[in-house]
Structure formats: structure tokens, C-alpha cells
Protein: Triggering receptor expressed on myeloid cells 3-like
Organism: Echinops telfairi
Amino acid sequence: MRGTGLLKGPQLLLLLLLLLYISGSQADDIGEEQECLTEGANLTVLCPYNDRKYGSSLKAWQRVRSQGPPETLVRTTTKSLEAESVRSGRFLLEDFPTDAVMKVTVIGFQRQDAGLYQCVIDLSPQDLFVLHHPYRLVYCNGEAAFPAQRKP
Ligand SMILES: *[C@@H]1O[C@H](CO)[C@@H](O)[C@H](O)[C@H]1NC(C)=O
């Protein structure tokens, strides 16, 4: 093997893995999941989390607007490992610490609910940890008027 190359095999492999890792995590950060909903539809999304770190932390569901801070729509109230279910208006937040997942249900979607949402761990008012990728709820009138939707 010649030692004059800039990168030898194992180093090159490590570099490639590092690049893959970096591009993968960036894609996760900017990616959002889009859901097409008709008026009155129900939707459930799951946000898994690290139960050892966040099992007994408060959880919240937020709406992210283009301006201003995200608005908390519904949040859990107890820091325990018991399952908790809180409903506020059309949003139901259920936390299942033993399954390490929070579940959000939109009940009876309305046109004005269209927008970007996210699951967060509410560590303190100043310290929120955003879980997973954001969800974009799109109003669809049932005629698949929106592009970028998966075909059946
Ligand atoms: C949505 O959920 C509510 C409450 O569980 C139920 O009463 C309603 O029929 C559901 N609507 C649809 C479109 O499934």
C-alpha cells in the first residue's frame, strides 16, 4: 500500500460515514411530515422519545407560526411515569411513558387548523426540546388538490 495518498482506505471510510451521518441528521431537522385532511377528519400522530431521559418530563403539542414563538396548544401536567391524557379543544395529547411515546389526536380537523405543529418536551418555559420532525397539516377538500402527496 502506498502511503502518499491523502486518505487511506479506513480513513476514507470513516470520512464517508461521518458525511452520511451529518447529512442524515440535517435532513431530519428540516424534514416535515405532511398530512392531508378534510374538514371533520381525525388524525393521530406519534412522537416517540427517549424514555430514560424524558419519561417523567412534561410534554406539549405546539403550533409553529411563521412569526412569533410557537404556541402551546395542550400540555401534560404531571411529572410522573403514569400515562396521562389531556384534551384542549380539538387536540388530545396522550403520554405513555412506559411505551416512550406521546400520541396526539386531532379531533374534527377544521380549515383554520391547517399549519405546522410539533411535539416538544417541556423542560422549562425557556428550555423546550423538539421531538421528531414537525407535522404540517394541510386542508384538503377531498379531491387531492395538493401536490407532493403519496399516490395510493
Ligand atoms: C373522530 O373522532 C370522534 C371522537 O372519537 C368521533 O366521534 C368521530 O366520529 C370521528 N370522526 C371521523 C370522521 O372518524
In short: Helices lie at 9-30, 51-54. Residues 22-29 have pLDDT under 50 and may be disordered. The domain at 9-139 is CATH 2.60.40.10 (Immunoglobulin-like). The chain has one domain: 9-139.
